[in-house]
Amino acid sequence: SSGINEAVVSTQSGHYGREGICIYRTRVKRGGRKRLAAKGICYGKPKTSGVNQLKFQRSLQSVAEERVGRACGGLRVLNSYWVGQDAVYKYYEVICVDTAHKAIRNDPRINWICNPVHKHRELRGLTSAGKKNRGMGKGHNYTKVIGSSRRANWKRRNTLSLRRYR
User: Fold this and answer.
1) What predicted TM-score, i.e. pTM, was given to this entire model?
2) What is the pLDDT of residue 10?
């Protein structure tokens, strides 16, 4: 790939060569996303009339995690990292965890992922790449997402609350 040693990267993140953990390499097509519009006709207002110069709102890394998560329904996506790219594709390795494996269930450092609440984390933006795309973080730069999301934050600040006893 790119001269970077993938084994070293995932060992540093503590997950290489352990039972119950597998790594999938996947590729995602680079570049912007084209709108599916029959004969290039977009109905409605001029704002929505574009076909070609559209950018997908999430990163290619989160798309890679999502595709692996859909393909491997019995595994949980833990994280992912970039391994290389060429003119057409970006390549990522996605770390997946087998929650049915005894080595995982008995290890207190990783068995949190066995809880049902962590099913399909990658589809809900809970992995590292997904949180980045949601704008989640700590500090004064991330005040727009206080309250779990941009939408919840906006809604809370724009809702008039008239309590019964006030």
Assistant:
1) 0.84
2) 60
